[in-house]
Amino acid sequence: xxxxxxxxxxxxxxxxxxxxxxxxxxxxxxxxxxxxxxxxxxxxxxxxxxxxxxxxxxxxxxxxxxxxxxxxxxxxxxxxxxxxxxxxxxxxxxxxxxxxxxxxxxxxxxxxxxxxxxxxxxxxxxxxxxxxxxxxxxxxxxxxxxxxxxxxxxxxxxxxxxxxxxxxxxxxxxxxxxxxxxxxxxxxxxx
Length: 191
What we know:
Order of helices and strands: HHHEEEEEEEHE
Helix content: 40-55%
Number of strands: 8
Largest sheet: 5 strands, antiparallel
Radius of gyration: 24 Å
Distance between the termini: 51 Å
Number of domains: 1
Mean pLDDT: 82
Strand content: 25-35%
């Protein structure tokens, strides 16, 4: 009877170990999906920042870039997501999906790990790959300062980075102390 009880306890220990292996693979897969979605959103955030600065002499256009309302999607975000998935030993499943969260652009990345759960007492785990997805959203952080005249001086207040004044008539390469992408837009995982 002692041998049967010890054998049963050992089996349970190995089964718990298999569940731990599965959870570790799932967590690694989720980290890879998070990284891929964030990489896609950060790539587009950088594109939106460039679009904002490139259109400073057109108030309607720069406002669209600043509020994330324009047609700002290039082709680089899939490559950025795949690169981060690769770095996490995973593959992007299909293309990055586009959606909205509270009216803001969002990106959905789905990955499959290249590694498996591993060998265990539960048959078939050596062939199971973790699959996970994540959604990252870009939120504008700035508003036009009330009472400012954007045709003369663009004044924006950005949550977390302060007040910025930009001369729309000056060449961009002559402007100093410009906000960075992280000052204009926040990128985070959606709940």
